[in-house]
Amino acid sequence: MSMSFERYMLDMVQPMRDDLTRLGIEELRTPEDVEAKLPDAKGTALVVVNSVCGCAAGQCRPGVAQALQHDITPDHLYTVFAGQDKEATAKAREYFAPYPPSSPSIALMKDGELVHFIERHQIENRSAADIAADLTSAFDRFCR
């Protein structure tokens, strides 16, 4: 029985992708997908840089899920997957300046401009509830 590494990785990360897509978050898998959505997204857009790490599983994805239960949420919901959809992630990160690459991370954009950013170091030592509170505060401020 033989399985390619690529197939193995796709199978392994699918549940991690599903954690976000089942919330209605759209995957941007190519640089073209990113370019078609981010620069022209009117209103607010949440962009989650997903990852296979433990802090993505334990804090980031659950925190995003909790935040999206809030009364006020962004108009658009997107995700890229670091380490998997590398070119799409690199393209999305161009919109997150001046922040360096960080996985996982969460960006909130308004009319194509970054207005709030949560870096990995702000995820890995906080609870999902803390991340949700950070996001809902940003939603209240920028998504009205």
Automatic annotation (TrEMBL):
Q: Name one Pfam family in it.
A: Disulph_isomer
Q: Which family does it belong to?
A: Belongs to the bacilliredoxin family.
Q: Which PANTHER family match?
A: BACILLIREDOXIN BRXA, UPF0403 PROTEIN YQIW-RELATED
Under which name does UniProt file this protein? BrxA/BrxB family bacilliredoxin
Q: Which organism is it from?
A: Paenibacillus aurantiacus
